[in-house]
Specification:
Length: 242
């Protein structure tokens, strides 16, 4: 990973984006930009559209309406952006071999694999587990490996979909430490979470979603201290949004 590399995939801009499946509107005319800087944190109840928004921004699905651009283009090299899902799949091979497979797919020269693998294992706190079968790792270790595997692609922007949803506090803290290390390297992180504490700890900007719409976008300090919408105030207070 190269700090200060040209941001050829960001900003990512969604303009009036909707996603409709049958008679169900999953995203409803969303306009949003992900720009360089601190993490953007997506929050909102289940079914609010956070995962679909990440998939759209990653380029995995196309909008039913509207447009998505990466640094002004409607297409961009997929190896400079990466996504980690809530339940990532582990390959039937060792921890280190999972990373080497990602390096292979990312077009990294084979001569660089040993050093890159060692660096990614260290970043993920898995240096002593390189030879262990990835599917034998704990849930938290697998999630750290998944993030490291995504970073093997040398992304400029990293999307994380509820990466700590099923983890205990210690494992969640480890993931947050990796996120901070990634941000320090100049990589833009966009993360969805249900954990308001995590949003406070990591967020630069907060995006509140509900029923497929963006309800409020605000710097984290402003969002939690001075919410501008009734929905934001209710969500911060722990009330259900219906």
């Amino acid at each position: 990973m190269t700090p200060g590399a040209a941001a050829t995939n960001i900003p990512v801009r969604l303009e009036d984006v909707s996603v409709v499946h049958g008679h169900v509107t999953i995203l409803d005319r969303v306009s949003l930009a992900f720009t360089p800087g601190p993490p953007t944190v997506l929050i909102g109840p289940n079914g609010s559209g956070k995962t679909t928004l990440l998939r759209i921004a990653m380029g995995l699905i196309a909008p039913s309406h509207g447009s998505v651009t990466w640094a002004g283009r409607t297409s961009a090299p997929p190896h400079r952006r990466a996504i980690v899902f809530q339940r990532p799949a582990m390959l039937r091979r060792s921890t280190a071999a999972n990373l080497k497979f990602a390096l292979l797919n990312g077009g990294v020269p084979r001569a660089q694999w040993p050093a890159r693998t060692a660096a990614l294992l260290e970043l993920a706190g898995l240096s002593d587990l390189g030879d262990r079968p990835a599917r034998k790792l704990s849930g938290g270790e697998q999630q750290r490996l998944a993030v490291a595997r995504a970073l093997a692609r040398d992304p400029e922007i990293l999307f994380l979909d509820e990466p700590t949803a099923s983890l205990d506090p210690a494992a969640s803290k480890s993931i947050e430490a990796i996120v901070r290390a990634v941000v320090a390297r100049g990589i833009k992180v966009v993360i969805s979470t249900h954990d308001l504490g995590q949003a406070r700890r990591l967020g630069g900007d907060i995006v509140l979603m509900h029923h497929g719409r963006v309800i409020e976008v605000s710097p984290a300090a402003m969002f939690f201290s001075f919410p501008r919408t009734p929905e934001a105030g209710q969500f911060i207070a722990g009330e259900l949004l219906v």
